[in-house]
TrEMBL record:
Stretch forming the signal peptide: 1-34
GO biological process, any: carbohydrate metabolic process
Natural source organism: Paractinoplanes toevensis
Annotated protein name in UniProt: CBM2 domain-containing protein
CDD domains linked: Endoglucanase_E_like
Length: 489
């Protein structure tokens, strides 16, 4: 609700991750040492028309080396320009990098890293034939890369493929997979968001802006396990990236589970996104700020869906409204971005709604930002009645869009909390919208009023937002409302 917005849209670098590993017998080595194999992680860290930046991290899985030579070949005519942390030669597509004078020692399990800039035309695929001192990095080791994140994990979130990885921005996006063994790695590249990691339904880690890494969960009991990664925070101007799962030694990634039959979509603002919901004090300046205290995975939407064993999307953006944003800020509104895959990222596109996404329930919570603050001089509405009229017109059109997308069988719930301290226009408008739809024969649109006082909401989240305590109450209230509808799922 109280959420500053910026018109700055940073350029998000396209990133491709490839991890390869191998085993074998070394026949030639720079320092006459044997080596059992190697692992190489290749990352395109930035890309622009005609050029790119990349890094390669190579790990020695054999005996210690006192000198090393890393080779690979490009498959689309790419060329290397400047390189650091090594000495490079390139002949045609073949690239050879030898150690610099100061980093030739590479112990067993040690890693050497090189970075470079390059040029490309047409395409920029990742190499796949890395070798260390002549030993191919192509075997089956703990860091064998995913063939593709979506081949391993299930998600109904709005994601976009980026090489083997997927990118996303909407809060609460989650991925679920299965593995056998005592550990699993999660491949991440995200300097903006926080995540929760769960194994077999138990939270095992909270990752704060993990950056580019493979996060490992180890020392589990041997057997089959489930793993879940969920994005806690909002990032409408920068995409997170998930590269899939990596099996630990002796383990394996299993086929992903069948998608759930039940589907739910939650559309809204800061209440829906989980703005500051982990906090127990309204002033979050001294306890980590709003972002560190936000967790979309424990919002009323997530709790409701999980309690009903439903897959779900949380499509929410703090501070935005149906026609008017918080305190009249900005010119865009929620409807500007609802159809996008990566929200306001520079290369965001219209999300191609898959045929597999047909939620039986859509819950909408838009209007707090429209009505919670007084109109300011210079806004296009001079009275609340004018604002309310525009709000109802836009909302009706939005409902028509959802009907066209999901069909007449979907149940749509319009939620609204108590704003009577400011105006009754919000409540009146929602009730009028439901009445109009019902009189027109659309009986699967209903309204749910959250009476803050009657429900016992403490609003102890950041900036007077719902707390964890409140979200549990809201989830129970919504679940009871749904139980009164003729759902047949």
């Amino acid at each position: 609700m109280r959420h500053a917005r910026s018109s700055y849209r940073p350029v998000l670098a396209a990133t491709v991750a490839l991890a390869v590993a191998g085993g074998g017998v070394l026949t030639t080595a720079l320092a006459a040492h044997a080596a059992a194999g190697c692992r190489a992680v290749y990352q395109v860290t930035s890309q622009w028309p005609g050029g790119f930046g990349a890094t390669v991290d190579v790990t020695n899985l054999g005996d210690p080396l006192t000198g090393w030579r890393l080779t690979w070949s490009f498959g689309a005519g790419q060329t290397v320009g400047q390189l650091w942390n090594g000495v490079i030669t390139q002949t045609g597509s073949q690239v050879t990098v030898t150690n610099a004078g100061w980093n030739g020692g590479l112990g067993s399990g040690g890693t050497a890293s090189v970075g470079f800039t390059g040029a490309w035309t047409g395409a920029n695929p990742a190499p796949s034939d890395f070798a260390l001192n002549g030993v191919p990095c192509t075997g089956n080791t703990p860091s064998t890369p995913p063939a593709g994140a979506l081949d391993q994990v299930g998600t109904v979130g709005r994601v976009r493929a980026a090489g083997n990885a997927v990118q996303y921005t909407w809060p609460g996006t989650y991925f679920e997979g299965r593995f056998r063994g005592t550990g699993v790695g999660l491949v991440l590249n995200d300097a903006n968001n926080d995540y929760v990691v769960q194994v077999d339904g138990v939270t095992v880690a909270t990752l704060v802006t993990p950056g580019q890494q493979t996060y490992w969960v180890r020392n589990l009991a041997a057997g089959d396990h489930t793993v879940r990664l969920a994005k806690r925070t909002e990032s409408p101007y920068a995409a997170g990236e998930f590269g899939g799962l990596v099996a630990d030694t002796g383990g394996a990634i299993l086929a992903k589970a069948t998608p759930r039959a039940r589907q739910m979509e939650f559309i809204g603002d800061s209440w829906t996104a989980g703005y500051g919901d982990m906090s127990t004090t309204r002033d979050c300046t001294g306890n980590g700020g709003v972002t560190r205290n936000s967790n979309a995975d424990v919002t009323f939407g997530a709790l409701t869906a999980q309690g009903l064993n439903a897959d779900y999307q949380i499509n929410a953006w703090s501070g935005l409204g149906m026609v008017r944003n918080y305190n009249g800020g900005g010119t865009d509104n929620f409807r500007t971005y609802y159809d996008t895959d990566l929200q306001a990222v520079y290369n965001s596109q219209t999300w191609p709604v898959p045929s597999t996404w047909r939620p039986q329930v859509v819950v909408i919570g838009l209007g707090i930002n429209d009505f919670s603050t007084a109109l300011n001089a210079g806004e296009r509405w001079t009275t609340i009645d004018q604002l309310a009229a525009d709000y109802r017109t836009a909302y009706a059109a939005f409902l028509d869009k959802l009907r066209a997308r999901y069909g007449s069988d979907t149940f749509i719930v319009l939620t609204y909390p108590d704003l009577s301290y400011q105006t009754t226009a919000f409540a009146d408008s929602v009730q009028q919208l439901v009445a109009a739809r019902t009189s027109a024969g659309d009986t699967r649109v209903s309204a749910l009023y959250y009476d803050n006082n009657a429900l016992g909401l403490d609003l102890l989240g950041c900036d007077w937002h719902p707390s964890q305590h409140d979200h549990r109450i809201l989830a129970d209230t919504l679940t009871q409302h749904l139980a009164g509808l003729p759902l047949t799922w």
